[in-house]
Amino acid sequence: MTAHPDFLKYVNKHADKFVQRLADAVQIKRYPGNLSSIRDLILIVLYLDLFSISGDAAYREETIAMGHWLEKQLKGLGVTTTLKDLGQQTLQGQRLDLPPAILGKLGEDPKKRTVLIYGHYDVQPALQSDGWATDPFMLVEKDKKLYGRGSTDDKGPIMGWLNVLEAHQAQRLELPVNLRFCFEGMEESGSEGLDELIEREAAAGGWFNGVDCVCISDNYWLNTRTPALTYGLRGIAYFAINVSGPGQDLHSGLFGRMVHEPMTDLIKLMSILVDHNGQILIPGIESMVAPPDESEIELYTKMDYSIADVAEAVGASIALSDHKETVIMGRMRNPSLSLHGIQGAFSEPGSKTVIPSKVAGKFSIRLVPPQTPEIVNPLVTAYIESEFAKMNSKNKMNVECSHGGKPWVADINHWNFEAARRAVEAVWNKSPDYTREGGSIPVTLTFAETLGVNVLLLPMGRSDDGAHSTNEKLDLSNFIEGTKVLGTYLYEVAQLAREA
Amino acid sequence: MTAHPDFLKYVNKHADKFVQRLADAVQIKRYPGNLSSIRDLILIVLYLDLFSISGDAAYREETIAMGHWLEKQLKGLGVTTTLKDLGQQTLQGQRLDLPPAILGKLGEDPKKRTVLIYGHYDVQPALQSDGWATDPFMLVEKDKKLYGRGSTDDKGPIMGWLNVLEAHQAQRLELPVNLRFCFEGMEESGSEGLDELIEREAAAGGWFNGVDCVCISDNYWLNTRTPALTYGLRGIAYFAINVSGPGQDLHSGLFGRMVHEPMTDLIKLMSILVDHNGQILIPGIESMVAPPDESEIELYTKMDYSIADVAEAVGASIALSDHKETVIMGRMRNPSLSLHGIQGAFSEPGSKTVIPSKVAGKFSIRLVPPQTPEIVNPLVTAYIESEFAKMNSKNKMNVECSHGGKPWVADINHWNFEAARRAVEAVWNKSPDYTREGGSIPVTLTFAETLGVNVLLLPMGRSDDGAHSTNEKLDLSNFIEGTKVLGTYLYEVAQLAREA
């Protein structure tokens, strides 16, 4: 069963209405919009300075207002909803309510599969003076692109789901699956409170009971040409190597070559973590990752990506290899180690002749299965400690792991991915790239582990959308065809259930 | 000829008067002291904040006032003086007169040797709230120590010379040598204008014509127990290794192991400059320094210094070696390389997952003869460039030398040093340590090169005087016996001329 033809026709016919829905959503700014009080007036003044600060207390009321607007939309489309209070947080010295999570339910047919949809309605800060060509909180269409904060991250995909619901409701079409919704308003600020909510709702009697799979549309194609399905995310383990020696900073003229300098020790330790090809030198880290089999290599070979794409994305021809597969695997299926910087050393312009007394070298490792922070940390610590011991330094050294997160990889042979592949091919007439992302979206892992079901990342936007940047956009075609993909995906989920 | 006995008797008898002279000098603060205008009132208010800023425009008038006071003292002691205008500087947006240099002349006897005395009358900033037990600009005697800003650096030594003059003038004793004076008021702020002045006055008809040797009393014993004569200073060459790649900072999740990271390259380059024993790894740097001969080693062996002294000075037992001579040579006669820090990388507390796009690693090499910045720079640059080439990185790298200064070493067998040795032994009943300092006093080299005569550093204070720190002090014995050393030194210069 492909998508109902009336669904697809409705989407084509009502593109303008859908764009207006996205425009309404984008206009709900994340800053105070009403001059109803002295406080608001003050905030308007402050806002010039504060706007670039993500998660600012001044914008909380508007974020909550967006949640209420979204809940009303869902209700109007026949969804049973509830606003889940996630408690409070302290931000900039203020005790603030967290924006509520919106849970939704549509359909209870035990013969149908139940798909859980996740999205987030909060956005990154934006100020026209940051370099936006237009008001970031007015959706502007130009050259078939929809510009506005949240257009691609993540209001566009959420509106895509509302479009799907509207097309069915307006034409009294039956949805092929049961739907559950989980829309949060804190994704850009650490998803505070969400993990606990998912755990509660996954328990008996919760809103997520009976969920068969999860679909998250909060990421992007690998390029600007080919749709993608994302089936993996790297984890992370973040470290600091602390080296200290003298009781205070020393003058290099007086003490250079008299004492063990903490910087000499630290730089040496940082230099033996990763080689110039990106290979991690800590024993046991690389070797625990299984090499790719032929079918996996084929994914990379077929992937619509080139060394030129890397150069364009980073603004320089500095890819680690001329082989496309090597570079792609470096991001998607291999661990990576990046040296971020040193705290406590001289970091200003100019030339200071200091011997810093206490320095902390920061680095992190992006993890892939079977690596976890718990498995990797002892290897990292043991290696650095043994290398430091060889140096016979009289300074003090310790390794600190400040935070970590596990990697996630899904089975792309699962019907959830198969349904998405069929939907992409039906709508775009093109096979999707199967991608793994280098970074983390922690909620993905929470859904996978808590619900024990397959999780799919189904991107709507393209690689050049500028999600956290200026002039964020969503191509009109990605919004409209993307809406078709979302709806068709539901039909394919139902079809595959029948085939099973 | 040892010192005239009446000179020594006068010093013993007039210690109180000499201390009062130093008290007067210390009280001439380097901040506005008179509430004569609105401007001064404002400065008094600002002064709470500004005081710790060296070379602040707000204190310029008082520094100039100190120069005039000092000139008046010299005149009163029979010295022919002139105030040399050194021009102006722009400081904190203000065009300011530089404090004048005071040149002095006493004696024109062609049968006598002519000794040039250098000192500086400006001081480091000081604020009681920095941790001073007493008002830094009131000289306070406690436990036979004289506490106050400038007591040891460098008002004490200058007052020592005035004491010598007074003892001779009051008793109508003839000085054994001709004297020339050069006292500046910008030493703590880069000696602006002084090099040019020295070059002008060294030329025919200048105030420094006929100078046979130079004596600078602006440094310290190696310890608290044994007088020292200093015959060497290390030079410096300061470098930045600049590595750049991506057009902007990158997210390590997205781009880790896809691209050549500037930090990976930089840390590797910084790690191969110096080993953990302080040995410089850049080819040609160590090898150009001749090993010490037996007589030099004997100086270090005899030196009153221990590994415990290092631990006490730096606040930790981190000396590079357990062999006293090795550690002393590390500071005095070997080059050293210190890694100061990295500009452009993550240097704050916390954990940021950035791949910095452009980083600059700062390090400097302390130079010893025959090393000069001109000789060392090409070796450093060639080595780093060749090591970078081996890395096959696609990032851009260059080595920058931001500033440099030559080392200085004097001949300790010269009669100038011999006179100082005899003076120290006569007054202190102890042989001096012959020391070389790890840091730079650029004016030393200017005198040596411009006048072509032997320059002696004759310290008055001890290692624990806290010259640039809180609670700066000069031991009463160092002031009084030090005054005797300065005077006796002049007699020994004359005696050695006769012996020659």
Automatic annotation (TrEMBL), chains A, B:
- Keyword Protease carried by entry: yes
> So what family is this one in?
Belongs to the peptidase M20A family.
Q: Which Pfam families match?
A: M20_dimer, Peptidase_M20
Stored InterPro entries: ArgE/DapE_CS, Cyt/Met_Dipeptidase, Peptidase_M20, Peptidase_M20_dimer
Q: Which organism is it from?
A: Boletus reticuloceps
Any one of the GO BP annotations? proteolysis
Q: Which GO terms describe its molecular function?
A: metal ion binding; peptidase activity
Any idea which UniProt keywords this protein has? Answer: Hydrolase, Metal-binding, Protease
Residues annotated as domain Peptidase M20 dimerisation: 231-390
SUPFAM superfamilies recorded: Zn-dependent exopeptidases
- What is the protein named? Peptidase M20 dimerisation domain-containing protein
